[in-house]
Design brief:
With about 110 residues, the protein is mainly alpha-helical. The protein is about 45% helix and about 10% strand. The chain has a single domain, classed as Sec63 N-terminal domain-like fold (Orthogonal Bundle), CATH 1.10.3380. It is built from five helices and three strands. A hairpin with a 2-residue loop joins strand 2 and strand 3. Helix 4 packs antiparallel against helix 5.
């Protein structure tokens, strides 16, 4: 953590998940595993932080209640501690195309 110097909770969670994946060969984990690894000192509400990291695509659901680090999360960790590189990684991600309004069209029945 000293080497990476994460600036946000999301970056801190990605760093902890990266440590689990690389150093301990634990690719799937629960939020509690991250909290135990960090001793619960730095992040006030772990559930919200893990949910936000999942929403930001740093983590992904592997199974029910189990998470894994995404390739985007790995890229963020690799870019740290340089925040300008982190911003570059974030801007390089393609945005999903918006859904069409009205949903799918049904095929005409004859």
């Amino acid at each position: 953590m000293r080497e990476k110097r994460p600036a946000t909770d999301l970056q801190r969670i990605a760093c902890l998940a990266s440590y689990l994946a690389r150093a301990r060969n634990q690719t799937e984990f629960k939020g509690k595993d991250l909290k135990d690894l960090d001793h619960g000192e730095s992040i006030a509400d772990w559930r919200v932080a893990v949910a936000n990291a999942t929403k930001a695509k740093y983590l992904a659901s592997a199974r029910h209640g189990v998470k894994r680090l995404t390739t985007f999360g790995e890229d963020i960790v690799d870019a740290l501690p340089d925040q300008s590189k982190v911003n570059q990684v974030r801007s390089d991600i393609r945005r999903r195309t918006p859904r069409r309004k009205g949903g799918r069209r049904r095929a005409a029945r004859s």
